[in-house]
Specification:
The chain is α/β, with parallel strands linked by helices. The chain has one domain: TIM Barrel (Alpha-Beta Barrel), CATH 3.20.20. 44% of the residues lie in helices and 11% in strands. An eight-stranded parallel β-sheet has the order 1-2-3-4-5-6-7-8. Strand 5 (162-164), helix 10 and strand 6 form a beta-alpha-beta unit. 40% of the residues are buried. It binds zinc ion. Zinc ion binds at residues 23, 25, 83, 199, 260. Residues 23, 25, 83, 199, 260 line the site of zinc ion.
Length: 305
């Protein structure tokens, strides 16, 4: 105890708060390969669409899972939820085994693929993943479509959550017409036992996201990312105001903390953790509720029951 308290360096440690980051990305060597674009194009897109200035691409022989665990240890983060593309599923399944309780795995599923149902079962049953990530704007489908419903049925059977990216996206070639979180209301109604997540507070579709708090009982949000979308909404906003409204509309049990950490050298985004934690403190969120936001809620969502 005394040793820890003397060496605590980070705000969450000073508060005695255990932190799980619910939303980050496992972008391995194989992921970069799968993008099939040259590294200059990647660097350009990173510079113009994010607040990063450069990225390190993982090497083919690098122990990338170990790199992430070292990063978590550096910042005192208990566990991290990773979005993982099909090209890295096997590698990540190995990481789940090698580092128990340090990762949660969300498998990126494209419901339009003919093999989507087989994939959805395989990643949970054989590979040990914990949930699905669906990306309507990237893959071009509605969440009230029959293709998406097939995945929700499997999520219902296997008792795993489904996280969604609606709203604006850094991904190349997205179609924003599929980006409305209101499309989640019919499946949330039809699968009342499935937990439906909305990443980045709706990434610009903030009004729609808040309305779903009223209309559903099984939709939650994550706070991940820089929330750059606030620049593009038609009313003045800042993160403190956004968090305040989210807490008022959804309450602390329907919000999970996330950073959207993705690439090195930036690594784990402690700046986002610190910023959000300070905001919640200014909003006088109690210690009990902070525990919900920063670890208990995501543990509850990920527990297969
Ligand atoms: Zn993300």
């Amino acid at each position: 105890m005394s040793k820890t308290s003397k060496t605590t360096k980070y705000l969450h440690q000073q508060l005695g708060l255990s932190v799980i980051d619910s939303h980050s990305h496992y972008l391995s060597y194989k992921t970069f390969q799968s993008w099939q674009v040259d590294s200059k194009a990647i660097q350009r897109r990173i510079r113009t669409r994010t607040d990063m200035t450069s990225v390190d691409q993982p090497g083919p022989d690098e122990d990338f899972a170990q790199k992430w665990v070292t990063e978590l240890d550096r910042y005192g983060i208990a566990r991290i939820g990773m979005m993982v593309g099909p090209e890295s599923w096997d590698e990540f399944a190995d990481a789940l085994k090698r580092f128990p309780n340090r990762f949660y795995g969300y498998a990126n599923i494209n419901p339009l693929l003919p093999e989507a149902e087989d994939q959805a079962r395989h990643v949970i049953r054989e590979l040990g993943f914990h949930g699905y990530k669906l990306y309507p704007v990237l893959h071009g489908f509605y969440t009230h479509s029959k293709e998406a419903y097939r995945i929700y049925q499997i999520a219902d059977d296997l008792k795993v959550p489904v996280l969604h990216h609606f709203g604006i996206s850094v991904g190349a070639g997205v179609d924003l017409r599929y980006g409305n979180p209101l499309d989640l209301q019919p499946p949330a109604r039809d699968f009342p036992d499935v937990k439906f997540g909305i990443a980045h507070l709706g990434a610009g579709m903030f009004r729609e996201t808040l309305l779903l708090f009223y209309q559903t009982d099984n939709v939650y949000v994550d706070t991940s990312g820089s929330n750059i979308w606030m620049r593009y909404i038609p009313y003045p906003s800042d993160l403190e105001g956004v968090m305040k409204r989210t807490l008022e509309a959804g309450g602390p049990k329907r919000i999970v903390f996330g950073t959207d950490s993705s690439m090195f050298p930036r690594g784990f985004r402690y700046d986002i953790l610190e910023k959000q934690l300070k905001i919640f403190q200014r909003l006088k969120v109690t210690m009990e509720d902070l525990k919900q936001l920063f670890s208990d809620n995501i543990q509850r969502l990920m527990r297969k029951h």
